Amino acid sequence: MKLSDLGPLMARREDGGLSFDRFRADPALASLQWPDDVLEQFLFDHGDKGAFLYDYGGIDLRVISWRLERVPAEDFSEMPTSASDAGCIESYAKDPVYWVVLRPSQIGRHWEEHGTWMRPPILIDRRLLAPSDKGLQVLEGRTRVGVLRGRLREQLHVAPGHQAWVGRQMSIRGDDA
Question: How many CB atoms lie within 10 A of CB 9?
Fold first, then answer.
């Protein structure tokens, strides 16, 4: 199953006739057994966007296994995002304080107290996109990663590690690769 296969479901969501609870209960999505946070941030919020379809449309969604992982702060320094959003993360990194101030005040307090985001972003193993690629790519959460990069550059409080949902290809046994 690919993103394009979800077109009718996405159209119902777009028309406002589908809450997230009803969206995630759809048999096709329920069979994926993805965490709700990933379903919401990736598929519900962005699954029908042209750039997402272009960049991630070729991935078989059934082979991705998601796990919440702690990723070292320095790994985010050069982590790319999709080709359609090239330069996006760095544009947020130019003024990290601005992008946090736009959010509810508890987000700014969380950055100041914990040096990280409140909601884990979505990362994907680049081998799912091209078998010869290595490392992780920011799928969703480009603003959060940009704020992190900017805070690192401006020497503001940043935790040494950050929670992120990481999608990797399942092994043949069905275990995480």
Answer: 19
